[in-house]
Write a structure and sequence with these properties.
The complex is a heterotrimer of chains A (218), B (550) and C (317).
Chain A lengths: L18 H36 L1 H10 L2 H27 L2 H31 L17 H35 L4 H32 L3
Chain B lengths: L2 H7 L5 H6 L10 H5 L4 H29 L10 H37 L7 H24 L12 H5 L4 H28 L12 H33 L12 H35 L6 H14 L15 H13 L1 H15 L8 H24 L1 H7 L3 H31 L5 H28 L13 H31 L48
Helix pairs in contact in B: 4-5, 4-6, 4-18, 5-8, 5-10, 5-16, 6-8, 8-9, 9-10, 9-11, 10-13, 10-14, 10-16, 11-13, 13-14, 14-16, 14-17, 16-17, 17-18
Chain C lengths: L16 H34 L16 H30 L6 E8 L2 E5 L5 E3 L2 E4 L3 E8 L4 E5 L4 E5 L5 E6 L4 E7 L12 E6 L1 H11 L5 H11 L2 H5 L17 E3 L5 E3 L2 H9 L22 H18 L3
Classes of the chains: A mainly alpha (218), B mainly alpha (550), C alpha+beta (317).
C-alpha cells in the first residue's frame, strides 16, 4: 500500500491535562464498561447452567434442535472479524488511513454476515416450530414443558448478543464514515482502539455463548 | 457559633476572584446551558433537584402507608391501594432516591473538586446518565398514572410475572433504565478516581469520601448488570410468556430471588458506603482533627465492597435453602459487621481531644451514629439464623433497614447538604433552624421506627394493610412519629431555599475545613480551580497539636 | 372485638420450647450488644461536649492512629458476636431436623388462604388444630405464588413455594389459640391470609378430628352457592344460554382462543370466575360478568371445590 502515513494522535479535551491522560481514560473507561457487560451476560450463563442442572434431558432435547453448524460458522466469522479489527487498529497506529477504512468495512461486513446467518437460523427455528413464545404457533417440544425454558433463554441470549453486535456494526461503520476525513487520525486515533476493545468483547461473548448453548448439552 | 461568626472568620472573601471569573452558577444563565451542561457541578445540581422531587413523592407514599395503618381493619385505604403505595414507596426510595442520592449529587459535585480535576473523565456520559435517570423516572411516573404496581419493590416471581394485575412492565423498564444510569455514573467515577487525580494526589492522600465512593462505584459496576439481566428476564416472562422463572414449566422462582438479592444486598452498601464517606468528612471537619486510623477506614470501605457480594443468601434462610448454605451466609453476614464497626469506633476516637463545634452537620453526623449503630446491630440479629426464623419478613426487618437507610443515607445526605451547601450555592443558611431540623429528624425517626422493632417481634408481618388489633397502639405511635419526621424534612427545604436568596454570602472555607474543595471559591468557577492544584500535604491536615489553652 | 385487644403488648406469647429458646437468645444478644454500643453513644456525645471549641481542656497526646487499639476493637466484638452465631445456628439446626415420629400435616398455600390436611384426611381452611406436646411436621407447597407460613408464638416461619416442597416442625407445649399468618407478600389480600393455630390437648384433638370429618364438604356447600350466585343459570345442564359445561372440566385441557391449550386447574377456574375476560377459551363469546370483588373468598373456594368435583365425576370424559 503506497499510502502516505498521516500523523497520529489525539486532540486533548478540556477536562484533561495531556493526551496521555486522555488515552488512558478512554481505554480504562471501555475496560470498566466491558466488565459490567460481562456481568450482564454472566447472569444469563448462570441461568443456563441452572436449567442444565435442573432439567438435563430437556436441555439436551433443545440443544439437538439448535443448528450447530451455523453457530460454529458464526464463531469462525467473528474470529476473522476480530482479526480484521486488529489490522484496522494497527493501520490506524501506523497512520494508514485508507487501509484502516478497508479493514473497518471488512469488519462490519463480517458482522453483517454473522447477523445474516443468525437470521437464517431464526428462520429455521421458526419453520421447525422452535418458538414457544409465539402465541398460536404450536411448539415442537410441547410434551416437554421444561424445554421451553431453555429455548426461551436461547432466544434471549442470542438476541442480546445480536443487539450488541448490531450496535458494534453501527459504531464500526460510523467510525469508517468519520474516518474518511483527513486529519481524523491525528485527532481521534485512540477511538479506533477503544472500539476495537468492544468488538473483541462481542467476539469473546459469542465464544462463551456458543459452547454454553450449542456444545455443552449435545 | 452563629452564621455571622462564620462569615467573619473568613473576612477575605475574594470578591476580586468572583469578579474576574463568574462562578459555575452564573457562567451562563440560559435554560439550555443547564440542560446541555457537561459541568459536573451543574449535573450535581440537576440531580439534587430531581432526587429531591422523588424523595418527596416517596415520602408522600410513606405518609399514606402510615395513615392507612392507623386503624387495624384497613378501612382507610383498600388493600389494593395500600399495596400500590408501599410498592411505589419502595421502588422510588430505593432506586430514585437512596441509590443515586449521595453519589450522584455530592459525588458528581465533589469528586473532581476533591481530587483537583477540572471535571469528571466523561462529562457527556455524565449528562447522559442524568437523562437516563429522567427517562426511567418518566416510566415510573407513567406506571403511577396508569394505576400503579402492586408487587413490592422486590418483584418476586411468579406473582410479578403471572399473577399481578397491575402495571408491572413500566415499573420494571424504569428500574432497568435507571440501572444503566447508575452504571454510567459508576464508570465515570471509577475512571475519574483512577486517572484524573491532581499531581501529588496519591491514593492515600485522597479524602475518605472519595475512597467510599470508589468502593460504591465498584459495587454498582459488578452488581447492577446482574439486576438488569434478571429484570430483563422478568420483562420477557411477563410480556412474552418466556417463563424462565415460572414453576409451572419447571422454572425456579428461588433462582430469581438469588439473582435479585445478588444485586439488592450489595445495593444496601451502595446506599450506606457514601454515607460513611460523608461521615468521615463531617467528623474530621467539626472536630478540627486528623481522622483516627485513615488507612483502616479506607481499607474497610474496600472490605465492605468485597464482602457485600457474599452475603445475599441471608435474605433466604427460610425458603428451603440448604443448611450448609444458610450457615455460610450467616457467618459471612456476621463478618461484614467488622469493617462497619471499625469506622464507627474510629470516628468516635476522632472526636476525642478534638476541637469540636456542635454545628448542624455534626448534629446530623451524631444522628447518623445513633441510627446506624442500632440498624447495624439489629442486622446481626437478623443474620442469626434462629432469630431470623422469627422476625424475617416482619416489621422488625422494616425497622432494621429503615434504621440503616434513613440512618445511614438520609442523615448523611442532609448532613452533606448542610456541610457543602455554602460551597454549592455560596450562601449560608440559618444555623438555628438547621440544629432544630437535625434534632427533629433524630427524634421523629426514632418515634416512627423504634415501635416497629417491637411490632415485628410481636409478629406483625410487613406489607399488611389489615392487622390484628393488638398491634394498633404501636402502629399509632409510629404514625405519629412520621408526622414529626415529615416536619423535620420540610424545614430544611424552606430555610435552604430561603438562604439562596437572603442567606449571607459564604467565603471559600466557611467551616475552616481541609480538602481541595475548600481552597477554591464558593461557588467554584466552571473549571473548579484558577490554577491546577498540586498536592503536597496529607488528607485532613488539621493542626496535629491543638493550640495552647484550646 | 374485646376491649383488651387494644391494650399495649410488648412481648409475644410463646407456645413452644423453641419459642422460649429464641427469646433467651435475643435477650442475651440484646444485652451484649448494649455493652458494645452504649460506650459509643456515651463517648461520642460526652467527648463532643467536653472538647467543644473554646473550652479549656487538655488536648495533648492526640493520636491519629493506633493499630493495636484498632485491631482490638475490630476483633474482640466480632469474637463476642460469634458466640451468638453459634447459639443461633444450633437452634436453627434443631429446626431443620424434625423428629422421625412427627405427625405430618400437609399444607397448601394459595391466594389467599391456607389449607391444612391432617394425617387422617381431615382438612381445614386457615385454622390449624394440633395436639399439644406432639411434634408436628408441616409439609407444604404453594399452588400459585410464594407465601410464607408464620406462627409468631412458635417463633418460626417457612416460605411456601410453587413447585417445591418445604417443611417446618414444632412441638407446641401450651394449649390455646395463636395467630397464624402469611409473611411473604402474595398479592392484594396478603394481609387477610391469616388464621389461627389452635393447640389442644391430645384428647380434645381426637374429638375435634372426629367432628371435623362430619362437617359438610366444601363441594356440597359450593353446589348450593353455584345456584344462589346464578352460575347454574348458564353453566347448568338445562340452560338456554350458550356457556361451556363444567362437567369434566377440572384437570383437563381447554382450547384457548387464538390457539394453545391450557389445563383447567384451580388457579384457572379461579381466574375465570374473577375475571372471565382474561383468558378466553375458543368458541365462546365473552358474556360472563366479573366476580372480582363481588364474591367472598370463602364462597369462591367452595364453588371452585364444586367445579373440581364436577371434573372428577366426568371421569376423564
Amino acid at each position: 500500500m503506497a499510502e502516505h502515513a498521516a500523523t497520529v494522535g489525539v486532540e486533548v479535551e478540556e477536562q484533561f491535562f495531556s493526551a496521555e491522560q486522555q488515552r488512558h481514560v478512554a481505554t480504562l473507561g471501555m475496560w470498566v464498561f466491558l466488565a459490567t457487560e460481562l456481568l450482564l451476560f454472566s447472569g444469563m450463563f448462570l441461568v443456563a447452567l441452572v436449567l442444565r442442572v435442573l432439567h438435563p434431558a430437556s436441555v439436551t432435547a433443545v440443544a439437538l434442535h439448535l443448528k450447530f453448524w451455523i453457530g460454529a460458522t458464526n464463531a469462525a466469522v467473528l474470529i476473522v472479524s476480530s482479526f480484521t479489527m486488529s489490522l484496522a487498529i494497527e493501520a490506524s497506529k501506523a497512520g494508514l488511513r485508507r487501509a484502516m477504512l478497508r479493514f473497518l468495512v471488512a469488519t462490519a461486513a463480517l458482522g453483517v454476515l454473522f447477523l445474516c446467518l443468525k437470521a437464517y437460523e431464526y428462520y429455521r427455528d421458526w419453520a421447525e416450530h422452535m418458538m414457544p413464545f409465539l402465541p398460536g404457533r404450536p411448539y415442537v417440544l410441547d410434551g416437554d414443558p421444561a424445554s421451553r425454558l431453555f429455548t426461551n433463554l436461547y432466544f434471549i441470549i442470542t438476541g442480546l448478543h445480536g443487539l450488541h453486535l448490531t450496535v458494534g456494526i453501527c459504531l464500526v461503520l460510523g467510525m469508517a464514515f468519520f474516518g474518511r476525513r483527513a486529519g481524523f487520525l491525528s485527532r481521534h486515533q485512540n477511538r479506533v482502539e477503544v472500539l476495537g476493545l468492544y468488538w473483541h468483547f462481542i467476539d469473546l461473548i459469542w465464544l462463551i455463548v456458543f459452547p454454553t448453548l450449542y456444545l455443552l448439552n449435545r | 457559633m452563629s452564621p455571622s461568626d462564620l462569615a467573619l472568620r473568613d473576612p477575605v472573601v475574594p470578591e476580586a476572584t468572583i469578579a474576574r471569573q463568574p462562578d459555575y452558577l452564573h457562567a451562563k444563565q440560559t435554560l439550555s446551558s443547564w440542560f446541555f451542561t457537561t459541568d459536573h457541578k451543574r449535573i450535581g445540581i440537576l440531580y439534587l433537584v430531581s432526587i429531591t422531587f422523588f424523595f418527596i413523592l416517596g415520602a408522600i407514599a410513606a405518609g399514606l402507608i402510615r395513615l392507612s395503618l392507623l386503624v387495624p381493619n384497613g378501612s382507610i385505604f383498600s388493600n389494593d391501594f395500600y399495596d400500590k403505595m408501599f410498592t411505589l414507596h419502595g421502588v422510588i426510595m430505593v432506586w430514585f432516591f437512596l441509590i443515586p442520592s449521595i453519589p450522584n449529587t455530592f459525588g458528581n459535585f465533589l469528586i473532581p473538586l476533591m481530587i483537583g480535576a477540572k471535571d469528571v473523565a466523561f462529562p457527556r456520559l455524565n449528562l447522559m446518565s442524568w437523562y437516563l435517570y429522567m427517562v426511567a423516572a418518566l416510566f415510573t411516573l407513567i406506571c403511577v398514572v396508569l394505576g400503579g404496581v402492586d408487587t413490592g419493590w422486590t418483584f418476586y416471581t411468579p406473582y410479578s410475572t403471572f399473577y399481578s394485575n397491575s402495571w408491572v412492565l413500566p415499573a420494571l423498564i424504569g428500574v432497568v433504565l435507571i440501572g444503566f444510569s447508575s452504571i454510567m455514573t459508576a464508570v465515570n467515577f471509577v475512571v475519574t478516581v483512577h486517572t484524573m487525580r491532581a499531581p501529588g494526589m496519591t491514593w492515600f492522600r485522597m479524602p475518605l469520601f472519595i475512597w467510599s465512593l470508589y468502593a460504591t462505584s465498584l459495587i454498582i459496576l459488578l452488581a447492577t448488570p446482574v439486576l438488569t439481566i434478571t429484570l430483563v428476564l422478568l420483562i420477557a416472562s411477563r410480556a412474552f410468556g418466556f417463563a424462565v422463572f415460572d414453576p409451572a414449566n419447571g422454572g425456579d422462582p428461588v433462582l430469581y430471588q438469588h439473582m435479585f438479592w445478588f444485586y439488592s444486598h450489595p445495593a444496601v452498601y451502595i446506599m450506606v458506603l457514601p454515607g460513611m464517606g460523608v461521615m468521615s468528612e463531617l467528623v474530621t471537619a467539626f472536630a478540627s482533627k486528623r481522622v483516627f486510623g485513615y488507612r483502616f477506614i479506607a481499607y474497610s470501605s474496600m472490605a465492605i465492597a468485597a464482602l457485600s457480594f457474599f452475603v445475599w443468601g441471608h435474605h433466604m434462610f427460610y425458603n428451603g435453602m440448604s443448611e450448609s448454605a444458610s450457615l455460610t451466609f450467616s457467618i459471612l453476614s456476621f463478618t461484614i459487621a467488622v469493617p462497619s464497626a471499625v469506622k464507627v469506633y474510629n470516628w468516635t476516637a476522632t472526636i476525642h481531644k478534638g476541637e469540636v463545634r456542635l454545628d448542624t452537620p455534626l448534629l446530623y453526623a451524631m444522628g447518623w451514629i445513633g441510627l446506624f449503630v442500632v440498624g447495624g446491630l439489629t442486622g446481626l440479629f437478623l443474620a442469626s439464623l434462629a432469630i431470623d426464623g422469627h422476625v424475617h419478613d416482619t416489621y422488625f426487618v422494616v425497622a432494621h433497614f429503615h434504621y440503616i437507610m434513613v440512618g445511614a443515607t438520609v442523615e448523611a445526605f442532609l448532613g452533606a447538604l448542610h456541610f457543602w451547601w455554602p460551597k454549592m450555592t455560596g450562601r449560608l443558611y440559618s444555623e438555628a433552624w438547621g440544629r432544630v431540623s437535625a434534632f427533629l429528624t433524630f427524634i421523629g425517626f426514632n418515634v416512627t421506627f423504634f415501635p416497629q422493632f417491637i411490632l415485628g417481634y410481636l409478629g406483625m408481618p410487613r406489607r399488611y394493610n389489615t392487622y390484628d388489633p393488638q398491634f394498633q397502639v404501636l402502629n399509632v405511635v409510629s404514625s405519629a412519629g412520621a408526622t414529626i419526621l415529615a416536619a423535620a424534612y420540610i424545614f430544611p427545604m424552606i430555610y435552604l431555599i430561603y438562604s439562596l436568596f437572603y442567606g449571607e454570602r459564604a467565603g471559600p472555607n466557611p467551616w475552616d475545613a481541609r480538602g481541595l474543595e475548600w481552597t477554591t471559591t464558593s461557588p467554584p468557577p466552571p473549571h473548579n480551580f484558577e490554577t491546577p492544584p498540586i498536592v503536597d500535604f496529607d488528607p485532613y491536615d488539621y493542626p496535629s497539636r491543638a493550640p495552647e489553652g484550646g | 372485638m374485646n376491649p383488651q385487644d387494644y391494650t399495649l403488648q410488648l412481648w409475644p406469647g410463646a407456645a413452644s420450647g423453641m419459642a422460649h429458646q429464641v427469646d433467651w437468645l435475643i435477650i442475651a444478644f440484646t444485652i451484649v450488644t448494649l455493652f458494645l454500643v452504649v460506650p459509643i453513644f456515651v463517648c461520642f456525645t460526652y467527648w463532643a461536649w467536653k472538647y467543644r471549641r473554646g473550652r479549656n481542656v487538655d488536648r495533648s497526646h492526640r493520636e491519629s492512629r493506633n493499630v493495636k487499639i484498632e485491631l482490638s476493637w475490630m476483633l474482640i466484638p466480632f469474637a463476642i458476636t460469634l458466640v451468638f452465631f453459634v447459639w443461633a445456628a444450633r437452634l436453627y439446626d434443631i429446626e431443620q431436623h424434625p423428629p422421625p415420629n412427627a405427625m405430618v400435616v400437609q399444607a397448601i398455600g394459595r391466594q389467599w388462604m391456607w389449607k391444612f390436611q391432617h394425617p387422617g384426611g381431615q382438612w381445614e381452611i386457615n385454622d390449624l388444630h394440633v395436639p399439644e406436646n406432639t411434634p408436628v411436621l408441616i409439609d407444604m407447597i404453594s399452588q400459585d405464588v410464594v407465601h410464607d407460613l408464620y406462627v409468631p408464638a412458635l417463633r418460626i416461619q417457612m416460605d411456601t413455594i410453587p413447585g417445591r416442597r418445604t417443611q417446618l416442625w414444632f412441638k407446641a407445649d401450651r394449649t390455646g389459640q395463636f395467630l397464624l399468618e402469611c409473611a411473604e407478600f402474595c398479592g392484594t389480600d396478603h394481609s387477610e391470609m391469616a388464621g389461627s393455630l389452635i393447640v389442644m390437648t391430645p384428647a380434645a384433638y381426637q374429638a375435634w378430628l372426629a367432628h371435623a370429618g362430619a362437617e359438610p364438604s366444601l363441594a356440597a356447600a359450593g353446589k348450593m352457592l353455584f345456584s344462589s350466585y346464578g352460575c347454574s343459570g348458564c353453566h347448568g345442564p338445562n340452560s338456554t344460554v350458550r356457556a361451556p359445561s363444567l362437567i369434566g372440566l377440572y384437570g383437563h385441557p381447554v382450547p384457548m382462543q387464538g390457539g394453545g391449550v391450557l389445563v383447567a386447574d384451580t388457579a384457572y377456574i379461579r381466574d375465570k370466575i374473577l375475571d372471565p375476560g382474561k383468558r378466553r377459551i375458543a368458541g365462546y363469546k365473552q358474556v360472563m360478568p366479573r366476580y372480582a370483588g363481588k364474591m367472598p373468598e370463602a364462597d369462591l373456594l367452595r364453588i371452585i371445590a364444586y367445579v373440581q368435583s364436577l371434573g372428577q365425576s366426568g371421569g376423564g370424559a
